[in-house]
Amino acid sequence: MRLVVFGANGPTGRVLTAQALAQGHQVVAVTRVPSAIPPRAGLTVAGADVKDRLAVEDAVAGGEAVLSVVGVSYSSKPITTYSTGAANLIAAMSRHGLKRLVVAGSAAIDPAYHPSDSFLFTRIVEPYFMRKPGRTLYEDTIRMETLVRACDLDWTIVRSAWLYDSEAITDYGLCEDFPDGLYTGRADLAAAMLAEVSGNGHVRGTVGVHTDEGTPNLFRQIWREGIRKPRKQ
Description:
- This protein is about 40% helix and about 20% strand.
- It is of the alpha/beta class.
- An eight-stranded mixed sheet has the order 3-2-1-4-5-6-10-8, sandwiched between helices. It has a two-stranded parallel sheet with strand order 7-9.
- α1 (about 10-20) links the parallel β1 and β2.
- α2 crosses α3 and α3 (about 80-95) runs parallel beside α5 (about 135-150).
- The longest helix has 16 residues, at about 80-95.
- The two termini are about 25 Å apart.
- The model is unreliable at about 230-233 (pLDDT under 50).
């Protein structure tokens, strides 16, 4: 299958691209920094910003399914990347006749998601390292999910818990709506998204993926995902 991956140069996008190629898919890796992705068999690199409507249309042309793992840093300023990108993807896919769309969402936007009873997490980590700095990001993620659910494509939203770098796929868990856990390894998120493309298990639905094996130390996770500046995608 020819898969078009947006956010391919991000930490999850690189893992997703590698897994897709290993499974024998043809991959169009879409990124704002195409020079950062080395050439490989089966891989086409396309330079595009998901907020650029015409560039998105060019990247999607000829694909069979689209996967989006676009991500941006926390900011106190309004964020529109997720919602604008979703609108552009939906329009481009509709124009070119593509139906299958799988996007990465976040469990943090669901008020019913309560991943931990830990005092440290619920009173310090979540409000001060996630909710407050991520307010504008989560607001736009909600707008993105709303747009995806309203479209007439065969969409699936795969929500992660707190993401961390991982290479190996584990025996990850899947739950309706949001994950049943605190962490999601990027390898597991990528694997779950590819499984949705191949198996169509949750078409027009939302599923959460969580990792229970080899999860990180909380303080290391705070540094890596809450403080350190994310890589460009």
